[in-house]
Amino acid sequence: MAVGSSARMRGAVAPQQLFARIGQFLVEQRLEPDPANYAFAHATLAHPDGPLARAVSALTDGGVRLTLRDIESLGAEVSTDRPGLAARADGLVAQTQMQVEGFEDVVQGLQADTRDFGRDLAASAAAIRHTDAAGERLAIEEIARLTAAMAERVAVVEGQLAQATREAADLRDKLEEARDNARRDPLTDLPNRRAFEEAFDAVVAAGGAPWLAVCDIDHFKSVNDRFGHAVGDRVLKAIGAALADTCEGHLVARYGGEEFVVLFAGIDAGCARATLERARTAVEAKRYKLRESDEPLGAVTLSAGLAPAQHGDSARAVFQRADALLYKAKADGRNCVRVG
Question: What is the residue-level pLDDT of the chain in tens, covering all 340 positions?
């Protein structure tokens, strides 16, 4: 990683050089070019002798990439939005506004037509009361003409409302899809960090006392280094699916990088640990091979920390305790579960 050379510069950085280095930093760290990550890269590279640059340089020494946990530990905001999601959401909001305005136009037009029809109908009725037979006949003919015109207008409006209703239903489906996509990890198709935090808050708000597991793939960097990121992505998908299968009934989410979280609600510590041990065993039992050459990847294992939510805890507070237990599992030799 180039932070060692990019961040340890002396003096101010020229704007063009800084811009180029920020781009290189994001590519090397496989970070999306969103505002939060750009701001983190800018804060790191704009002050190469500052404490943040030195901390990043230490973390990435030897070509190690930053994880979301690393970035969070440095006090930076982590972005969990999918690329292009904000733009699509803006487009759907604009479509919704146009749909609402379309309904308003149709209703206002019908109201104006109804007022005119009522006024003309009243005038014709008054004419009937104050005219002779010939005038009465003419007034009745006028009423018939007005009624036919109004019926035709109502038929047109019904067609417009039916079309608007179909468009509104289609837009509602798109909004539901966008809402789901905003809470789903694009690689594994699991819920993402945002969905996990919302689910945690919902369980706590309902009076629940959940247990949280933080799971991390052991030596995942070596998989990427030996076989490439495409293979690493396939391993992430396979392990995410294994966790979802063995922890069925509980929320399994990709927190970021090679980290997953499992939210256990409605069960005690013993059941949560037993479920997590089954998941760990299932991952260990898998035998991964390269799709292209059938070459074995070797064993891939999982370490995990399991902690309970205490009264008043935020999702982040419980995550930090479970994460500390995960580090203990790593220190104890990996491929194990530690419970707090």
Answer: 445 444 433 345 577 888 888 888 888 887 777 777 888 888 888 888 888 888 888 777 656 677 776 777 776 655 544 455 555 555 656 666 666 666 666 666 666 666 666 666 666 666 655 555 666 677 677 777 777 776 777 777 677 777 767 776 776 776 666 666 678 888 899 999 989 999 999 999 999 999 999 999 999 988 888 888 888 888 999 999 999 999 999 999 999 889 999 999 999 999 999 999 999 999 999 887 776 677 777 789 999 999 999 988 999 999 999 999 999 999 999 999 999 8
Q: Which of 141, 198, 248, 258 is catalytic?
A: 258
Secondary structure (3-state) at 264: strand
240, 242, 244, 248 alpha-carbon torsion, rounded to 10°: -170
**Closest to 185 measured CA to CA, from 267, 114, 103, 241:** 241
What does the DSSP assignment read for 310-333?
-TT--HHHHHHHHHHHHHHHHHTT
CB neighbour list of residue 114: distance below 8 Å, 6 or more residues apart: 150
Q: Known catalytic residue: 258?
A: yes
CA-to-CA separations, 107 to 94, 158, 175, 250, in angstroms, rounded: 20, 11, 24, 47
Strands 288-289 and 302-308: unpaired
Q: DSSP class of residue 300? A: -
| Nearest CA among 321, 319, 280 for reference residue 301 | 280
DSSP 81-124: PPTTHHHHHHHHHHHHHHHHHHHHHHHHHHHHHHHHHHHHHHHH
Dist. CA 290–CA 298, nearest whole Å: 10
